[in-house]
From TrEMBL:
Gene3D superfamilies per UniProt: 1.10.340.70
Taxonomic source organism: Micrurus carvalhoi
Source domain of life: Eukaryota
Pfam family, one: Integrase_H2C2
Residues of the Integrase zinc-binding domain: 52-104
Name of the protein in its database record: Gypsy retrotransposon integrase-like protein 1
Record-annotated membrane-spanning stretches: none
């Protein structure tokens, strides 16, 4: 992802690793896993996941949702490659508004009398 495609200036992006480490995540400059946010080849990373800005989140959700994999699979795919604050709840909302997913999802079992 190019910095220019995110709608933020390089000056703002240069501050993001420190801000994400201390403010958004509340974990300080490094996480419990020993790494913090960094910029590599124009991508803002948290470990091996790309941090997706709000302007690109819908496009990422569209790609993750191709084939209507369901919430569990979609979350697993997302957690492997991307991150943003509230990722899980965003995916839950996305799938909840998908008509084909709601029509084909399994209904919870009915309790026996």
């Amino acid at each position: 992802m190019l910095l220019s495609s995110c709608g933020l200036s390089p000056t703002i992006w240069s501050k993001c690793p420190q801000l994400l480490g201390m403010f958004v995540l509340g974990l300080g400059p490094r996480s419990q896993y020993g790494f913090g946010p960094m910029v590599l080849k124009g991508c803002l990373l948290w470990g091996d996941r790309v941090i997706i800005p709000p302007t690109l989140q819908d496009k990422i959700l569209e790609v993750l949702h191709e084939g209507h994999p369901g919430i569990v699979r979609m979350k697993a795919l997302a957690r492997s490659y991307v991150w943003w604050p509230g990722l899980d709840s965003t995916i839950e909302s996305w799938v909840a508004t998908c008509k084909p997913c709601q029509e084909t999802r399994l209904a919870p079992p009915k309790p026996s009398p």
